[in-house]
């Protein structure tokens, strides 16, 4: 096979992460598969193990991966801690996927976030900010 010069090659990570030869029951939501303590496997997500490479790999790997790894868990923890999350019955959760450049939700996730006591909401520039008092 000849790959012409200047070709942009895209790695189909979706296919790897949904391959039953790579992941057991790939379509089942099983986060414990990543926890060694729960019988799962310890995958290095920083680009060394191509079974799961959310930050890419190789020379163009994400330079912000370490910042991402520590900050994403912090803001998710803050959202879980400071809000009560309730299903939006008008727009129920729909896990249908659509494969574009990356795999996205076909219908955006819609939930109701109820601030717990001690959380002050302010609105500005189309964003809702929350301060913990
Ligand atoms: C959880 C958070 C993040 C995820 C999942 C993520 C994911 C990615 C992915 C998949 C790529 C493409 C890598 C490739 O082409 O192989 C990338 C590139 C990049 N990311 Fe991130 N990233 C995150 C956070 C960040 C942060 C916090 C920064 C900066 C502070 C950052 C800066 C960049 C830059 C500059 C590139 C382009 C690198 C290049 O093309 O040479 N990313 N990221």
Automatic annotation (TrEMBL):
Heme binds at residue 62. One of its GO terms (molecular function) is oxidoreductase activity, acting on paired donors, with incorporation or reduction of molecular oxygen. Its cofactor is heme. Keywords: Heme, Iron, Metal-binding, Monooxygenase, Oxidoreductase. It comes from the Eukaryota. Signal peptide: none annotated. Belongs to the cytochrome P450 family. This is Cytochrome P450 78A1.
């Amino acid at each position: 096979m000849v790959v012409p010069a200047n070709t942009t090659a895209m790695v189909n990570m979706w296919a790897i992460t949904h391959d039953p030869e790579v992941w057991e029951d790939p379509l089942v939501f099983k986060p414990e598969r990543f926890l060694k303590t729960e019988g799962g496997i310890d995958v290095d997500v920083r680009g060394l193990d191509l079974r799961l490479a959310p930050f890419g790999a190789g020379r163009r790997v994400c330079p912000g991966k370490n910042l991402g790894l520590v900050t994403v868990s912090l803001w998710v923890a803050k959202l879980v801690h400071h809000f009560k999350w309730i299903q939006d019955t008008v727009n129920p959760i729909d896990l249908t996927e659509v494969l574009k450049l990356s795999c996205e939700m076909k219908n955006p996730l819609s939930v109701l976030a109820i601030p717990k006591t001690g959380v002050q909401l302010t609105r500005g520039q189309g964003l809702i900010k929350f301060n913990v008092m």
